[in-house]
Design goal:
This protein has helices at 34-37, 43-52, 58-70, 76-85, 91-104, 106-109, 113-135, 149-158, 164-176, 184-193, 199-210, 218-229, 235-244, 262-274, 277-297, 307-318, 325-346; strands spanning 18-21, 26-29, 32-33. It is an all-alpha fold and 374 residues long. The protein has a 3-stranded antiparallel sheet with strand order 1-2-3. Helix 10 packs across helix 17. The protein is globular, with a radius of gyration of 22 Å. The mean pLDDT is 95. Bound molecules: acetyl coenzyme *A. Acetyl coenzyme *A binds at residues 183, 214-216, 218, 248-255, 294, 298, 303, 306-308.
Amino acid sequence: MQVPRGLEGVIVASTELTKIDGQAGRLVYRGYDVTELAGIVPYEAIAHLLWFGQLPTKEQLGKLQSQLASNRRLPPVVTEFLEQAARVAEPLSLLQTSISILGGLEETKAASIIDASLALTARMPTILATGYRLRSSQAPLEPRSDLGHVANYLYMLTGSVPKQEHVRALDAYFTLLADHGLGASTFVARIAASTLTDVYSAVVAAISALKGPLHGGAPIFVWEMLQAIGNRENARDWLTDHLAKGDRIMGFGHRIYRTEDPRSRVLKRLAKEIVEPRLFELASTVEAEARELLRKEHPERAIDTNVEFYSSLVLHAVGIPPELFTCTFASARSVGWTAHIIEQRADNRLFRPEAEYKGKLDLKVHESPVKTVA
Ligand code: ACO
């Protein structure tokens, strides 16, 4: 049986987590439209929805919030690793290796799959903020258990209790990014989980896939593109030259959406509320110009903004440095990855496709130039 390259349109698993309607531009988590969840219920409620199947009651939400808060501290061995490596390794590698160390600790190994998912999700912001502060010669901060998941992340990065509007925007971002079907990283997580490896190892694998610029690595390039364009007047010429060189416009296009990504719509609205007007106008001009140029180049398919385009503005506005953009995506996606790992393990079958062999056959070693051992 042959399947298309990139497995486009191929169904490889069943899920009750997320439904994406690429034609209508709709994204649903366990029955709820994501645009109705983002900024309305806290991210911890999304974690409950994805892990346990329903939105929490007030008591359930309070319990999950305090479980997450009490799991934020890092074991000394991870802090020591960050102290050694923060200045020489990039943030995503620090995150991956810290998660890998966490997964190898004796105390972690005994945890149930849900407890491991919860502890991993709770600790990701601490790893990111600790690594960032060490990289920028600032003393790391202890997590604050009186703050929510997202507010504590901002606090640990900046040392100040964040503004309410920033918490609301970043919380909505975390919800919008929490899950997205079988994107490359989630597929990788499910493949790893199908070998019955541990949650931490499956998430490390997912982060490797997220890193690439065709997936979660895009927002920093969006940010750099906006900096390079500089002002609205330059947008059309810059984009025209960029496309003429055969380069892709970052933050545009999606394998599944054939219309605007619904997450992009919400992020654009949030960006308008919190980003400096000059930057927002630059981004919306770039969006309009790029869309028009891409329509001309590809009249056969709509190439619109994806989740990464306005993410870069929202993340910048709430105080996340560009080097943490992809890491922050990883932190938000941790509940989606772990929910998929739980789902995969509940009805597992080892993933083992085949490759069509197109190489040579019947070569003889004694006719090759290699020296024999004897
Ligand atoms: N800029 C310019 N051209 C594009 C873009 C873009 N952003 N996206 C697609 N195209 C063009 C391709 O060049 C290709 O043209 P061709 O047929 O003449 O060669 C055509 O559209 C189809 O491209 P594919 O790569 O087949 O489209 P696919 O659906 O597989 O790509 C992808 C999806 C990888 C996201 C692509 O749109 C892209 O590279 N975007 C830029 C990177 C980006 O923003 N990544 C973040 C994605 S969101 C996420 O992962 C969280």
